[in-house]
């Protein structure tokens, strides 16, 4: 048993093997573990705590904007899932099917929800009669199951945790505004909580959600130059409403169909945090989402007063709202340093006998290893709070600079391929709007259209077919 | 469309048909709705908000006592569920079985978790090596599936929401202390949050959890005199540890098996709230668990200043931590009163033009209909907070008196049957400890042993067999 030695939990370097580095971090930072069913992971306390931080932040935003949480059944009758044609086509190949309940074979197979549009629609059709019943702004926190062949922790799994919002509105205008509002909330959460700058835009017809009229997306850029779709917000029009008969009597005494949205983010966001901010020593957590922001590590903790001081500091910091812990285990300080590093805890606070004499402590920043000596006085908490805020800003600016440095314009297909294979990241390309050209780019380069830049000024021609461009599109290789 | 009329949502009286009254309240208070799969209900916003209140309260308690949340997979391989003999025997008849994933038949069937002991055990066996890794104090909030033939909203469903705690410890003593600690937290939550007095005790061998060495329970008494098992805490000994090989190297350098617990409460607690406190006008919510504590209902809201005042009051109360809403819909006040009543909102605050003139408002208590006139001054929030606390105490004392009035001692089987058929409630009976006698009581009376009173002084004889009593047992008909 390694005990009073320095921990040596070396992980693969990012530049040597990024994929291996990623799974090393996932496991050694104890975010997750594999279960005995392929594609089904265990969210360990540290990984789940990260998800809880995200949940708390977003749930508050959802409620402030008038949304209510509900819980729909986990199982969907096969016939119900089939009611909207595009939708079932999109999800049928990924379904987990329950064929037996109790000791009997079921009369109708039940599908474990891959997403819950059909359940919400069926319910809405029952409970909505009048304009007075609108809007309905529901959200659900749950897990969903999509049978995947290739799986990676947090990025693609057969079961994952997420939230799915489902709203219905009296008018198209309201529903469109809701779609954009939720996209904004996603973008804002990424920026202010996760220190991740997102590219936002609209999916192409080919890449949009099964059954949606329009899909908007937030896309993050990983350290290896690949994009990660991190959240989507869909406008459904009245397609589902017609398939499920969700009608209401409007103020003008006419029966009308509702207009609908859905939107979701998942534990993929954990993957984004890891791959945007992590380094060769492990996880690096943005302070606002870090379950522990400061780890106090006593030096020579057996010496008089050291542990007492550590616990006193813990109370002092806690009182100022800092998420703080003391590592008082019987491991060596070096071992504790490594563990705190691997787990990406933003600040490490060392306090030992000599510090006590001098009335000071040493604080180390995870993000760059910088060490600062601080006085053990009544200003300590304020100084640390400011430091945490500065670190957030520093991490965001670093990620933003990296992302901006990896958005490149291309005019020709050769140029496109060249950038993709040297620098990676996003490549903005004029596009004619034909699926054929989009597919050819994917087939030849493995880069997919991430989203249409809805604010870009469109000029130039599609480099594939030479026709006049209709859109400027962000392409990238993606997870 | 009923609009400016008084709402007339009459529900069945409790005394006419308690079962019908119960489902009427569940549906008309909009706590739940049925889905198209039997036994799978929809938790509507109001019902889910109640569960969120319970979650928030308990999750805090769990974390304060050192527990961490995790998330385990939803699916369990059939062979894994079979690893502990008693456990699989208990759950096999209730399993929902996934036999297809994607487009293929599975090599091994997967069971939707009916409970997650086996998953936790498999994980613990992998991650625990040394005494330093102990204890592990994990909890999970999720839903589970148990195929039930007869279902009732919140009380018995094929899917329900719950928390399941699973802990492992180095010693039997620690694990036993954990079992009792969690029972205490359950009892305290029921008392302080839900205003429900619980009978606590130990389950008989026959009634204990499949695989447990001992099961402790909290039992609530419903208005119709039937008991409702509302939470359980299990001590497992090292039975699962041996079946799953969860060993650790102790300080004395010996390999030992861990000692284990699990404990859970579910959305059954919503059923308890409804059936303990509800009345013929609907739900009656204890203030601390009520998602909305005060409903402000403007009278003649079209008149100048009325709505403004209502919103001003809302802000004032909110600033003092009161959960408050304004009902500014275009329904009549009478309709709004009925709705607030049906939903069991503790206080209704009426404010109209005449109140504005007089600088006052009328507050009605849901629990007894009492009306109070209060000044619209800076003390209003404090007065309401005090009122809410008083209502909690009043509701708890009422429920306690009812429960105490429904605990009766019996010495003979005749006496037992007589009490059961006239008064209902709990009957305390001396019992020899033989399962045969316990079964006979159940078969002849439909009353089951709810729990052993572990603190009772035991004397007398078992009225069934005449042998010397080993325990005093609470019997009752139960949900």
Automatic annotation (TrEMBL), chains A, B:
It catalyses: tRNA(Pro) + L-proline + ATP = L-prolyl-tRNA(Pro) + AMP + diphosphate. Keywords: Aminoacyl-tRNA synthetase, ATP-binding, Cytoplasm, Ligase, Nucleotide-binding, Protein biosynthesis. GO terms for molecular function: ATP binding; catalytic activity, acting on a protein; proline-tRNA ligase activity; transferase activity. One of its GO terms (biological process) is prolyl-tRNA aminoacylation. Residues 43-286 form the Aminoacyl-transfer RNA synthetases class-II family profile domain. One of its GO terms (cellular component) is cytoplasm. It holds the Pfam family HGTP_anticodon. PROSITE patterns: AA_TRNA_LIGASE_II (PS50862). Its EC number is 6.1.1.15. It is found in: Cytoplasm. NCBIfam families: proS_fam_I. Belongs to the class-II aminoacyl-tRNA synthetase family. ProS type 3 subfamily. PANTHER family: BIFUNCTIONAL GLUTAMATE_PROLINE--TRNA LIGASE, PROLYL-TRNA SYNTHETASE. Catalyzes the attachment of proline to tRNA(Pro) in a two-step reaction: proline is first activated by ATP to form Pro-AMP and then transferred to the acceptor end of tRNA(Pro). This is Proline--tRNA ligase. It comes from Coprobacillus cateniformis.
